[in-house]
Amino acid sequence: MKSALVLGGTMFFGKRLVQLLIDRGVEVTIATRGKTEDSFGDVVKRISLDRTIKETIQQGLQGLNWDVVYDQTAYSPIEVKDVIDVLKGHVDQYIFTSTMAVYDHGLQRKEEDFISNNFNYELRERSQYIGISGYQEAKRACEAYLTRYSTVPVSFVRFPLVVGTDDYTNRLKVIVDRVKNNQEIHVYNLDLGLGFISSEKAAELLYWLGQTKQVGAWNGALDGYWTHRKLIEEIEEATGRGALVKEMEQPLPETTSPYAMAADWSVDAEKARLAGFKFGTIESVLRPLIEHYANND
Q: What positions does the domain NAD-dependent epimerase/dehydratase occupy (predicted)?
């Protein structure tokens, strides 16, 4: 891989991906709306486009060539369609950042638990996909469209909850802060399992797929899973405070844990591990991160 287009690349693990590509000597172009500043300077090329406006995609990408495209920002099948239509014959691999939400709820879901080619969908704009169920349908539809119509090899990367000090959503920090401040936390069920991956490992997996030309569906996750109860216990240990946690059939929005799920949700990344990728354990990532939030405001 000598050149890569990153659709996105200025936030969270997309930013880590861009830096990793640069460090490995890849010529990088980032394509965004231009609303988020980055620190890459003149090391990267930049294209301004809006995924919801086809004309900007045509103007920005027409006639340009890359070895790999990393799609971090598609939230409707129309958006992937517009990109692959413009890049037909100009790219060798398309890597789509997907989510564990393509799977039905359950523990340690495997890649074969969702076959994208079997999913029926309609071409709809992102504004028509609402809430978690809409997000799930949108990502499934994106995978399905790429499976059926991409003229180049496609990789789908299905991530669980992504964590890191660079998580702009501050989801884990919110939970730690509530425990520190003796504020209530509401969940559906403390014993439901959750899957995680670090932003660092997410970026490394994306790079690895492009560098080794791996195609098809790939789960990316730290080994195993934690229950919400385990997460709270670790936070209590790090903060020295008891958590005010309540299980509720309908948690209140203002006090609901950002990680509150109505059922188990985690993925098994054995396929990638057997292919040589090492993720590490949840403990090795979450414990230091919880300590970081516990000891910093």
A: 4-189
Q: Are 105 and 193 in contact (CB under 8 A)?
A: no
Q: Residue 134: how many CB atoms within 10 A of its CB?
A: 16
Output the pLDDT for position 37. Answer: 87
Distance, CA of 118 to CA of 183 (rounded, Å): 45
Instruction: Give CA–CA dist 156/57, Å, rounded.
Output: 21
Asked if 57 and 84 touch (Cβ cutoff 8 Å), the reply is no
Residue 26 lies in a domain: yes
The whole domain housing 257 covers: 165-195+223-263+280-294
Q: What is the chain's percent helix, strand, coil content, to nearest 5?
A: 40, 25, 35
Say which residues have a Cβ less than 8 Å from residue 135's Cβ, sequence separation at least 6: 75, 99, 101, 129
Q: Classify 283 as helix, strand or coil.
A: helix
Q: What angle do CA 84, 63, 152 make, to 5 degrees?
A: 35
One domain for residues 209 and 172? no
135 and 153 in a common domain: yes
CA-wise closest residue to 235 among 188, 189, 166, 171 = 171
- pTM value is 0.96
pLDDT mean for each 10 residues of the chain (297 residues): 96 96 98 90 96 96 97 97 96 98 97 97 95 96 97 97 96 97 96 98 98 97 97 98 95 93 96 97 98 93
Q: Are residues 65 and 31 in the same domain?
A: yes
Answer yes or no: do 39 and 54 share one domain.
yes
